[in-house]
Amino acid sequence: MLKKNKNNEAMLVQRWTLTPAATLGSAVRAKGILLELRAQLPLAVRKSLTLVGLDLVLTLPEDEEEDFRSVTSLVSKALVDIESLPVIPREIEDILTITTGERRRWLEDGRLPSAGTRTVKLRGRARQITFHVFDPRVVEDLLDRGIVEDWREEDAAAAIENRRRAALKAKLTRTLKSGAKAKKRSSADNNAAETDLSGWEEFDRDGLLR
């Protein structure tokens, strides 16, 4: 497709519409797909590929037709399997509308199955980070079943039970401490009584009470 930009320059334009199966209804996921595709393109033309709504749009000047055809081919090939692109943490949080804490807790206890890990280098830094990724079809199934609300109810019930157990444990601890203190006081009183009666036999033998 041939269009003109604001400077009245002829521009070559190609569009691809992302499917719901690819984005899972998430704008964050759509942006993630854009970044994934850009990473596969030559550096000089990466920003020529943009996201407009759910459309990927490639725009290059008319005199760069050869690059346009090459990039168009690369993007088209990459989009063939885009629906199977693993879901990264920020995407699954947006898709399922969950918090980072929930994602980490459910990943740790196995409710949210990991599809492996991915390591990336932070832009402009030497440090790398490794994070879990998720199977998009598993994420889609969780979304369709609305299982997140069930998990939240389970967590709320578990939290109540944990608080109840903690309260009972604290009460038992206080009771044991009180018993230990009472026993210590009783022992001290007995020792004092024995001390008070020390020498009584000698006192009685001397007949001082007669």
Description:
- Residues 177-196 are annotated as: Disordered.
- The chain has helices at 20-23, 27-38, 65-79, 89-96, 100-108, 136-145, 147-196, 200-205; strands spanning 2-4, 10-17, 49-52, 55-61, 117-121, 128-132.
- With 210 residues, the protein is an alpha+beta fold.
- Among the domains are: 1-83, Gyrase A, domain 2 (2-Layer Sandwich); 150-189.
- The strands form two sheets. Strands 1-2-4-3 form a four-stranded antiparallel sheet.
- The termini are far apart.
In short:
With 210 residues, the chain is α+β, with helices and mostly antiparallel strands. The chain has helices at 20-23, 27-38, 65-79, 89-96, 100-108, 136-145, 147-196, 200-205, and strands at 2-4, 10-17, 49-52, 55-61, 117-121, 128-132. The mean pLDDT is 87.
What tags apply to this protein structure?
4-stranded antiparallel β-sheet; alpha+beta; elongated; two-stranded antiparallel ribbon; 210 residues; Gyrase A, domain 2; single chain
Which shape, going by the Cα principal axes?
elongated
What is the mean predicted local confidence, pLDDT? 87
Q: Tell me the strand percentage band.
A: 15-25%
Individual helix count: 8
Largest sheet: 4 strands, antiparallel
Helix/strand/pairing category: alpha+beta
| CATH second-level architecture of the domain at 1-83 | 2-Layer Sandwich
Measured distance between first and last alpha carbons? 130 Å
Biggest β-sheet: strands ordered side by side in the sheet: 1-2-4-3
Taking pLDDT < 50 over at least 5 consecutive residues as the criterion, the unreliable ranges are none
CATH topology of the domain at 1-83: Gyrase A, domain 2
Estimate the helix proportion, in percent: 40-55%
Overall strand count: 6
